Amino acid sequence: xxxxxxxEALPPLPATLASGxxxxxxxxxxxxxxxxxxxxSAEEKARADRFSLATPKxxxxxxxxxxxxxxxxxxxxxxxxxxxxxxxxxxxxxxxSHGLEFNISHSGGRIILALAxxxxxxxxxxxxxxxxxxxxxxxxxxxxxxxxELGGLDTDAMTxxxxxxxxxxxxxGKASGRGMALGLQHxxxxxxxxxxxLEIPPELGPAGGWSLAELPVMEGFEAxxxxxxxxxxxxxxxxxxxxxxxxxxxxxxxxYSTPDCVLGNAAADSSRYPSR
Length: 276
Description:
Elements (H helix, E strand, L loop, with lengths): L8 E4 L8 E8 L13 H8 L4 H22 L8 E3 L5 E3 L5 E8 L2 E8 L3 E7 L6 H8 L2 H7 L4 H22 L11 E2 L7 E3 L11 E4 L6 E7 L5 E10 L2 E4 L1 E5 L22
Parallel strand pairs: 2-12
Antiparallel strand pairs: 1-14, 2-6, 3-4, 5-6, 7-11, 8-9, 10-11, 12-13, 12-14
């Protein structure tokens, strides 16, 4: 199935995030010792210590490190100084009047972070894997028209199609702040054509007021981002650890290939954020 994406290289980490834009960063989780645990708050450190398994603990520490590093870069502040609040359904948000909205997700050793200006944004990533009781799961989570699109597919194709739809629904639930309580069957899109919402719960407003994009994070993963803005422009890039420093790859535009997509050319100073 076509992804309907054009890529245009842009400068590393633009200096500003404009209204109507979404910036998405993704990173592979490595050894948790490479991340700046001293940036974490007392509550975050306590949460990390409650993980009994090394992999979930590493993902949590990595996620908070990347989150703080990127937000600190955009806001021009010390990552350790950032404070967060938690919504009724568990969605984190920055404290203070920053005007910067974010959402984060992780799966299969990769972390993905989306940012938007003054409007809700949600992102989700899932590693492709065999799903138990796939048909039952699809019937329960998908709208009838979505389920019909999976009809006749072999198991691998059906799994991928289901996950493509699932990450979209998860992203919208997270953007709304309500998660799965939003009602997955009422968040409707199609695998055919460019990603867009066909139907969403009425409390979120018109479906056309939300933009949706699939993200080319890495082979073997499905990921999507949605933002409460019509015709939003989405940019995606990777983050890697290079020695003791974070290295931001070039942001690339999704869905748009015209020159007016070019953002500012002020590059980030990644040396401000050593990994240790």
